[in-house]
From TrEMBL:
Transmembrane segments: none annotated. It comes from [Mycobacterium] wendilense. SUPFAM superfamilies: FAD/NAD(P)-binding domain (SSF51905). Keywords: FAD, Flavoprotein, Monooxygenase, NADP, Oxidoreductase. This is NAD(P)/FAD-dependent oxidoreductase. The keyword Oxidoreductase applies. Its EC number is 1.14.13.-. Pfam families: Pyr_redox_3. PANTHER family: L-ORNITHINE N(5)-MONOOXYGENASE-RELATED (PTHR43098). GO terms for molecular function: oxidoreductase activity. Belongs to the FAD-binding monooxygenase family. Its cofactor is FAD.
Amino acid sequence: MSTATSSRVDVVVVGAGFAGLYALHKFREQGHSVRVFEAAPEMGGTWYFNRYPGARCDVESLDYCYSFSDELQQEWTWSEKYASQAEILEYINWVADKLDLRDGITFNTRVLATVLDEDTLTWTVTTDSGEVVTARFVVLATGPLSSPLTPDIPGLDTFAGDVYHTAHWPHGGVDFTGKRVAVIGTGSSGIQSIPLIAEQAVQLYVFQRTPNYSVPAGNRPLTAEEITQAKATYDERRRMSWRSGGGSPHLAHPKLTMEVTPEEREEAFEKRWQLGGVLFSKTFSDQMIDFEANEEARKFYERKIRAVIEDPEVAELLIPNDHPIGTKRICTDTNYFQTFNRPNVELISVRKTPIEAVEATGIVTSQARYDVDALVLATGFDAMTGTLAKIDIVGRGGQRLVDDWTDGPRTYLGLGVDGFPNLFLVSGPGSPAVLANMVLHAEAHINWIADAIGYLDQRELAAIEATTDAVDNWIAECNRRADATLFPRANSWYMGANVPGKPRVFMLFIGGFGAYLDICSEVADAGYKGFDLIAR
Ligand code: FAD
Ligand code: NAP
């Protein structure tokens, strides 16, 4: 079915990453006409843009892929425990070809606005190519991490060398051989790329503002036996993932941190450390709730990191001391801390010696000048809301979503917003989103939306719209749950803290992926409790 030129469709989907592609497939299967608009020239979203050296997933490849088709699961074979950006992008394109999705996507086309017609309860979607499409439903699969942030450093635009952002990396790659390079930012993107840039550059300066927790990924090729075993047991792997806290088949230690002896605790942390990756923060189930428990994990972590850094003064700078471990997303790395033992790598604490300016040939801090040929910005994203805010989303009574969200995003389940009937968010604020395996999360959201549309159609209803009460209650519930954890103690992008002026609210549902899915199912089973169902 090709709908690529229709100006009136059942569903407009914005974005062709993991979420938008599955949405196209699912809604087509339901018999709907669908248009997908994608600003980029190709599909893949995150994995199209973030091509920096070392970019790879931090959820295991075998889990970070679509689960809705066993045929896809069985036919695709991942080469590494954590797949590289290139392999993930190849997978996404392979799926799109298998499911015949390309003709439903209009590339190089940015959605500028979507405006509700209250009489017909339809949306008018306008794009930067001048196209105007009317749709009954709009699904915003625009991604939580799709608006890269460029820091406001004086003189940045006067730099005469090459400037790269990790989230807009050149397609042909970059050769830093013989170059003096500065990296600003030590989040997941910086930490993945720094060891590889250091191998090429003649000199690398790493400008760190806040030290981050990073756990060795333990990446390695998957063996043929592992793949055979995983494919034979995929059903169980997925069943565990759907029930889990974060969308992976992980089980925390059965006891709480302080219930076990120090030896058992050490053993549990060591076991998880050897397995590698972000799940270290879930070794015990109370680590993100109980500060004493968190401290045990943090102390173990500190011992591990100090052991691999040769210079104690450098180690001191690299060890976080301002937030509990795991309250910002744990980074995963390959030899990140060891990189600072290299003679060609220097760490500069921007907290101690702030960057004052970028000049044509270098970076000036309060204490020194660093001559560089290339500058890498690993400075993150205006997460969760940044991309949505760039679309003029106008609902009932001319109400704009951005105005509605000035004190922080307001949604019901991270899926719907009062005043915006038949408009759905995917992995929006108020859902677990980036706290979970985002591929399964996208599938769950699209399945829920498809069911809701099916429910309306079966009953010949016109629209579904979150009630204001439901939104208020959901936001209160999200805040209550966040406040019961250690997460609000960090200046994280989960809290909007990385964007000057952004409201300080914890933007996610922290209660766990499985628990969240139960709530979504209960809402649907109760006839979409908390939503108004509007007659034709
Ligand atoms: P995206 O992949 O962000 O796709 C959204 C698309 O919408 C983009 O292509 C964008 O161009 C398009 N778009 C946005 N606005 C418009 C508009 N107005 N008009 C037209 N098109 C528009 N999550 C995990 O669970 N595990 C991981 O290991 C992991 N690793 C990550 C690594 C990096 C470097 C980053 C940045 C994120 C990572 N994430 C990870 C989160 C990741 O964003 C999600 O896993 C997932 O790829 C998001 O898919 P999506 O389709 O929701 O959004
Ligand atoms: P990030 O975590 O927000 O890190 C941005 C870094 O830039 C931080 O160290 C930040 O310091 C620093 N920074 C920002 N502005 C600065 C300035 N003006 N001066 C100095 N430093 C500045 O962004 P990210 O690394 O791109 O990662 C974002 C998210 O994407 C991750 O948390 C994760 O969810 C996802 N991701 C995942 C992977 C993976 O392993 N699969 C890889 C990359 C990204 P402060 O901490 O002080 O703000």
